[in-house]
Amino acid sequence: MRKKYLTQILGCLLVMSILPVANAQVAGTTTTPANKAGEPTQIAKGWSAKRSVMGQKLYNDSGDVIGKIKDLIVSPDENISYVIVSAGGFLGIASYDVAIPVQQIKRDKDRFILPGATKSTVKAMPRFTYANNALDRGVFIAHADREIALGQEKVRSLRNQIREANSEAKAGLEKELTTLQADLKSAQTKLTELKRSAMDNWRDFESEVKAALEQLRQSREASKG
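Below the sequence we write its predicted structure tokens.
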């Protein structure tokens, strides 16, 4: 079975059936998920794309290392169509990613090979970027920055009103200001964490930022100031 999967995963070596275990437990671990009967055995007898493919070196047919396998791109029809290879470094420039059609990559024993490739041909390949991911991240951050700016503007407005308010109104405004400042700080902290995250995993922080921004919006709109 493993031979069949490897044959389909890279240049007749890739199939979707390896993906469910790609980020699961490595084959043969002792962890036993509480799933249907027989699944722990299937996992133990399976193999991990993360261990068997991801991070593996890519060679040319002369034995030169030309990159490292970083990612697999799944097409809308659920077939793996491209291998994302981290190249560079040996070219005297910073490492960058290139996309190589899966059919072009062969496997020879324990090596993945791109026949006919040279350092020059790899250098000439267009750089691959996660364009949609980067765009989505940029749009999300821009929206979050606007929400925080509105929160900051509301804080300034409340402070001005507190300075001019009588003692009876001041107590209520100060309570609103305290709540708003706490929600603003929470949103800023979570957005900073997202901004510092790698491009590939910013969505791990998205839901928490959204929740913090929603709380900030509610506090801002609830304020009478």
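The first helix runs from residue 2 to 9.
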